[in-house]
Amino acid sequence: MTKIEYTELGSTGIRISRIGLGAWQFSQSWGVTDYEKAKAIIARALDLGINLVDTAIVYGRGLSEEFIGRALRELGVKRDDVVIATKIPGEMLSYDDVFKATRRSLRRLQTSYVDLMQVHWPPCWNNIPTCEYMRALERLQAKGLIGAIGLSDFPVELIESARACLARSDIEAIQVRFNIAELEAEKEHIPYAEENDLTLLAWSPLAKGAVLGKYTLEEAAKLSDVRANDPLFHPENYAQILELAGEIKKLAEKYEKTPAQIALNWLLAYSDTIVPIPGAKTPEQVEDNAGAMGWRLEQEDWLNLYEKARKLRITRVTF
Ligand SMILES: NC(=O)c1ccc[n+]([C@@H]2O[C@H](COP(=O)([O-])OP(=O)(O)OC[C@H]3O[C@@H](n4cnc5c(N)ncnc54)[C@H](OP(=O)(O)O)[C@@H]3O)[C@@H](O)[C@H]2O)c1
Questions:
Q1: Global pTM value
Q2: Which of 115, 164, 214, 221 has its CA 20 to 30 A from that of 30?
Q3: SS3 for 79?
Q4: Within a domain: residue 39?
């Protein structure tokens, strides 16, 4: 029997499951482009008690949001029973675009507000001042179109600057990549989230499946989805990750859990500020991932895995 854990989104008082559902999978990048499949995944998550769904405007160019909005309506989900997090891309951050993008997002999601609106990544080509989009978000929040504000893929220095732009509110969450093979977030983001009572939404918490050892070196080289260009699956990195995956599999046997449950449980035990948002391509994967909650790895096993993970030397220079 899966025991779902809950925590608070920042200091909002909003109760979220300790593991959310990532919805990038509902896109060409990952391949779940059939609505009924997406609906079954969402239904299973909600049935289990997973109430946080993370999507973005760019996922399938609106497809992910559309699927979520339609599924929530068809499933008759009460608005209060689900926490919707979405994101505005770094290209849509002029003051007016923040309003326009949010209203279109709400239309696709078939709702009058999103619980968490995140800036997906900082603007890098359009020269938009940080305070311009932060003030737009704050105005939308004051008007009730967005509940809380979050920042994704922002360096800590820029998070600080962005927070200083807000007159009356504050951010409640940051989102960064964090998984047992890619630990960079522990350098700055995790301590920052801990110090500031922010929820840290951990993306790619399964390292896109790499740490599960489900693909051989040869199979990994042939992946044709979003992973084709991900450095994790480059042989130079993936060969090392497979060794770590071997250790994860051993623990899975010891605890009678699955590799995904071990990999996610390791993140839950890292810090109570971390909320992993694994993506799933089937209802079975959702259920499997939910089983990472309700128990903990023994200290010794957690530490041994950490030691092995810290020895990985991942390079992003792949050509
Ligand atoms: N803010 C950002 O910039 C950003 C960036 C990336 C992702 N995200 C968010 O984070 C979410 C998750 O990240 P992600 O999609 O990159 O990667 P992930 O969650 O680490 O990996 C997801 C993939 O792992 C496999 N998988 C999932 N559960 C499994 C299980 N129980 N057993 C075996 N395989 C399983 C599935 O692929 P296969 O079955 O095909 O192997 C699935 O598509 C996204 O959906 C999105 O919401 C945010």
A1: 0.98
A2: 115
A3: helix
A4: yes
Number of domains in the chain: 1
Atom of ligand 1 lying closest to residue 118 CA = 1
Q: pLDDT class for 2, splitting at 50, 70, 90?
A: confident
| Burial of 311 (C-beta count, 10 Å sphere; 0-12/13-18/19+) | exposed
Euclidean distance between CA atoms 66 and 63, whole angstroms:
5
Domain membership of residue 182 (yes or no) is: yes
Q: Is the CB of 24 under 6 A from ligand 1?
A: yes
Tokens 């807000």 sit on residue: 166
Place of tokens 């010794």: 300
Does some domain include residue 75?
yes
**What is the extent of the structural domain holding 117?**
6-208+259-296
CATH of residue 139's domain is 3.20.20.100
16-44: pLDDT as tens digits: 999 999 999 999 999 999 999 999 999 99
**Residue 225 in domain:** no
Report whether residue 288 contacts ligand 1, using a CB cutoff of 6 Å.
yes
With the most atoms of ligand 1 within 8 angstroms of its CB, the residue from 84, 117, 285, 288 to mutate is 285
- Bridge-based pairing state of the strands 15-17 and 6-8: antiparallel
CA of 125 to the centre of ligand 1 (A): 28
* 241 SS3 class: helix
Confidence of residue 218 (pLDDT cuts 50, 70, 90): very high
Cα of 86 vs centre of ligand 1, distance in Å, is 16
147-186 confidence digits (pLDDT tens): 999 999 999 999 999 999 999 999 999 999 999 999 999 9
Q: Using the mean position of ligand 1's atoms as its centre, give its distance from the Cα of residue 277 in Å.
A: 8
